[in-house]
Design brief:
Strands 1, 2, 3, 4, 5, 6, 7 and 8 form an eight-stranded antiparallel sheet that branches. The protein is α+β, with helices and mostly antiparallel strands. The radius of gyration is 27 Å and the shape is elongated. The longest helix is centred in the middle third of the chain and has 34 residues, at 110-143. The relative contact order is 0.10. The two termini are 21 Å apart. Helices cover 59% and strands 16% of the residues. The protein is built from eleven helices and eight strands. Helix 6 packs antiparallel against helix 9.
Amino acid sequence: MILIDRHIAFRFIVNFLTLFCLIFIFVVSVDVVLQFDSFVEAASRAVEQDRFSSTTFATLIAILDFHGPRVFQSYSFLVGLVSVAAAGFTLSQMQRSRELVAMLAAGIPLQRVAVTIFLMACLLNGIQVFNQEFIIPRLAPVLLREHAQILSKTSTEFPVVMTRDASDNLFSGRVLDADRGVIEDILVLTRDEDGTADRRISAPRAVWNAEGYWVLESGIAIDRVGRDEGSMQSQQVIERFETDLSPHSLMVRRDQERAQMLSTRQIGVLRDDASTSSGRLARIMWTRIGGVGVNLLVLLLILPNFLCRLPGPLLLQSVKCAAIGVPVLMLSVLVMLLPVSGVSPALMALLPTAVLIPISFWRLAALKS
């Protein structure tokens, strides 16, 4: 790289980091203000457990603990949009200081600026690929925490919301420890052919047996005799409940909900265990490839708005950039994630890239420099 390339690259990266930090701090500030009581309560519990000596210090740690890992998640969401904004700021600064005019006077074409910015955007998207494949999957357990779980780092303990098993029963529990195969406050609703609950099974604790059933501790089953709400009676003790919802199966279903945070290898394993959702999982995998292409091509699409031989109104150029870049990014994401019957997820994920390739390179080739 010659001096001018390093100068452009440095300014672009600085603008990218500045914009990303400002957006991230703004989002964190809004969440802290809205959920401040949750952070204070978590800090108070930590002080009571002698984990910290000061509630104020514990509150700061709670905020950092909860939002710190979200830097990587936010980066994956914002890398495309912030790259476009950083390019706009970089070229606006160069245009204001007449650096673009000086480059033209020195015989350096404006495409040289576009190439440097494009290469830096490739670097940022490469970091995003590494982030998505290696960092976010490791942080997935803490990224999935809610505000009630602040300062908690459990990865195999999670609540089980109403889940349907192979027999059309509804299964739930307050918390499942998948490593130990133990679930607390289990509740099962068995249903008849019409979908009406005909039995309610509950137990304060249940342990999974490898033969395919849950061993209930102090389990109680209440059968429905009539059809009205007050007809639940015939209470009896029950010791086991057979179902296909093992701890592993429940973890697989949870992983389907957090598939965006898994690596490509993990999604491949998940597709083998949950073939019924293979279309959605394949869409996520291909969208990651298409997303990188869209991020880079949208950047090329907006660069000619700022690469002008003569200085122009920066506000008008910024409005044109936003009017082109933001809708194209949003529409591309919508197309990539849109399930269309009979159409391959790979085709839908790569369609925006295929459309943007000729348009973006035509825009750059038509640049007057």
